[in-house]
Write a structure and sequence with these properties.
Layout lengths: L4 H16 L7 H8 L3 H13 L3 E4 L5 E4 L8 H7 L24 H16 L3 H16 L1 H5 L9
Helix pairs in contact: 1-2, 1-3, 1-4, 1-6
Length: about 160
């Protein structure tokens, strides 16, 4: 499976927003600098995210974006679907026009794979990714704790 740039950038931008929105609204310019995504591309993505109420904007000086709902309620699948980038493994998109109007021999296999990926990404929230990032940063800050065998770790 290869997720498009649009879907990957949308998830990355939303994660950046989740990480920084505790300090007030986050500007697209800040996300652009932080993540190396062009401002014009972010504007397109955030228009779609705003339409699905995954983000809310604040206009004027000091404005920017907040998450539209708590990070615990925004799944990665929500984000990808909001920017219309769901990846289907069947070329027919479920319309059974694989070949001569009939599903191909492996249609059901690829359709089930798409469903499994959707369910997997539906079970991961922005809050989960934020927490994973905190754990990774903590491990990086204290490599001796992360690498020591469980019985040999020093107390924090």
């Amino acid at each position: 499976m290869r997720l498009s740039t649009k879907g990957r950038y949308a998830v990355t931008a939303m994660l950046d927003l989740a990480l920084h929105s505790g300090n007030g609204p986050v500007t697209l310019a800040d996300i652009s600098v932080n993540q190396g995504i062009s401002l014009s591309y972010l504007e397109q993505l955030f228009a779609a995210l705003r339409a699905k109420q995954l983000v809310r904007g604040v206009r004027g000086p000091g404005g920017g974006y907040y998450l539209g709902r708590p990070a615990t309620e925004v799944s990665i699948a929500d984000i990808i679907c909001a920017v219309d980038e769901w990846v289907e493994f069947t070329r027919c998109g479920g319309r059974e026009n694989c070949r001569a109007g009939q599903p191909c021999l492996t249609h059901q296999l690829w359709d089930q794979l798409s469903d499994e990926i959707f369910h997997f990404l539906s079970g991961i929230t922005l809050a989960d990714l934020v927490e994973r990032g905190r754990i990774e940063r903590a491990k990086a800050a204290r490599p001796e704790v992360a690498e020591a065998p469980p019985g040999k770790r020093r107390a924090a």
